[in-house]
Amino acid sequence: MTALVRFRLAGFLRTGRALAPVLAGLLTLGILYGGGRAQPAEAYGVSAVVLFPVLAWQTKILLDVEPDVQRRLALVAVGPAREQAAGLVAAVVAGLGLVATAVVFPWLVGGVAGPSLPGDRSVSAGVALGLWAHLLALPAAVALGALASRVITRSAGYGVAVLTLGTVGVLVLGFSGSVAPWLAPPLLPTARALVGPLSGSTALLLTVWALAWTAVALTGYAQARTRRA
Amino acid sequence: MWLEDVGLRYNRRGPWVLRQVKVGVAPGEAVVVLGRNGAGKSTLLQLAAGVLRPSRGRVLDRPSVVGWVPERFPADQPFTVDGYLAAMARIVGLSPITADRAVRRWVDRLGIGPFRTVRLSQLSKGTAQKVGLAQALLRPPGLLVLDEPWEGLDAAARELVPQVVDEVLADGGSVLVSDHRGETVRLPGAREWLVADGAVVERAPSDAAAVAVVELEVPVGQLPATVARLRAEGHHVLRVRGQNAPPEATRPGAGPSSEVAR
């Protein structure tokens, strides 16, 4: 499976189509941090929200770069379960690259500041929480991107629709007072939680929530793939 | 390997492409899959290879190593021939050394050595098809599925396909080949499946049904005795042409010096 992950990452990086989501990510981060300085944890919480659609889009591009027949050849070579898993793992690895960029970026452009008031989090705590927020967003984004990929949606139009609906869902369902927050991964709740002090139970709840949402979405993906090679 | 009451449709509400297919192929057996365009040959092959899952029924005892040569090789990929085959060899689970050896072996046999560093997208159709053939053979397959393997191949490579098939059969593998251009004669002894109207039916083995015509030259004096002997041995003597008769092969029995017998 490692060989297939590497093969797909190579296919993604060599076509130049990898450039689009990276540029979109950098642009988004540039706008986000262009306004001034913020506390790291708060800034990272928002960064995870705005990068969510970029990570999902990147996943769709990575999975769609491979021709349909080549995906079927991989399926014959390693079996359906590992073929699907290899695509998702490749997308996670590519996503980790973007997450690392997002964590480092604000320090390069001076978008975040260290603690200034008593009660502010230390820099290391802020970075750790920021990393956590991004790592909650990544699996959910990969799952959404997989659901939007060509093998599932079969047309570019439906693919874009799934990405858009997923992103809008995250924003609309994520506002405080939402009627059905559980339908979306907890990106806005996480960003809100990072503004104030964060309790361990809240962190655990958010983590379980994000992973459960991802699990449901990936189950849907695997289910849909049984009828779509 | 057996297909047990296999049915397939591409959509829940779509039409059945294949229904209640009950066919099997034993180790060491080759099957030629025949049928009109769009009859479902490729679908049947992809079910056998494990690319498609049956909507109904199941596929039993599929060998663990399957080589599938798709109808069209996906050449739109950013790899060289060498890079692609090396990656595929690693993906099917070969160690780096075995992978390297397998790639070199098939590159040499298929005559794609000069294209090793060429990008897949720049290959001619025939050369790309050879890469498609090579990737299916990197591991000796227990089931080799060839979808129109002769398409776009040059004469030398055409001869290679039956050789490869024979090798797989000799190793106890099974082979499925689809063909709509009558290249089937290159695979004597293969069974034939006919795909039509969603059903797959086995045709009588081509060996028994196939007939060849042998032309003999016989001294006129021995003619009656020779004809009698051939008939006694159970051969059909189609006709006897006199020494001076015009060679009218199209209308047997027309001339006075000709005799037609069935």
From TrEMBL, chain A:
<protein>
    <submittedName>
        <fullName>Uncharacterized protein</fullName>
    </submittedName>
</protein>
<feature type="transmembrane region" description="Helical">
    <location>
        <begin position="129"/>
        <end position="148"/>
    </location>
</feature>
<feature type="transmembrane region" description="Helical">
    <location>
        <begin position="160"/>
        <end position="183"/>
    </location>
</feature>
<keyword id="KW-0472">Membrane</keyword>
<keyword id="KW-1133">Transmembrane helix</keyword>
<feature type="transmembrane region" description="Helical">
    <location>
        <begin position="44"/>
        <end position="63"/>
    </location>
</feature>
<feature type="transmembrane region" description="Helical">
    <location>
        <begin position="203"/>
        <end position="222"/>
    </location>
</feature>
<feature type="transmembrane region" description="Helical">
    <location>
        <begin position="84"/>
        <end position="109"/>
    </location>
</feature>
<keyword id="KW-0812">Transmembrane</keyword>
From TrEMBL, chain B:
<keyword id="KW-0813">Transport</keyword>
<dbReference type="InterPro" id="IPR051782">
    <property type="entry name" value="ABC_Transporter_VariousFunc"/>
</dbReference>
<keyword id="KW-0547">Nucleotide-binding</keyword>
<dbReference type="InterPro" id="IPR003593">
    <property type="entry name" value="AAA+_ATPase"/>
</dbReference>
<dbReference type="InterPro" id="IPR027417">
    <property type="entry name" value="P-loop_NTPase"/>
</dbReference>
<protein>
    <submittedName>
        <fullName>ABC transporter ATP-binding protein</fullName>
    </submittedName>
</protein>
<dbReference type="InterPro" id="IPR003439">
    <property type="entry name" value="ABC_transporter-like_ATP-bd"/>
</dbReference>
<dbReference type="Pfam" id="PF00005">
    <property type="entry name" value="ABC_tran"/>
</dbReference>
<dbReference type="GO" id="GO:0016887">
    <property type="term" value="F:ATP hydrolysis activity"/>
</dbReference>
<keyword id="KW-0067">ATP-binding</keyword>
<feature type="region of interest" description="Disordered">
    <location>
        <begin position="238"/>
        <end position="262"/>
    </location>
</feature>
<dbReference type="GO" id="GO:0005524">
    <property type="term" value="F:ATP binding"/>
</dbReference>
<feature type="domain" description="ABC transporter">
    <location>
        <begin position="1"/>
        <end position="222"/>
    </location>
</feature>
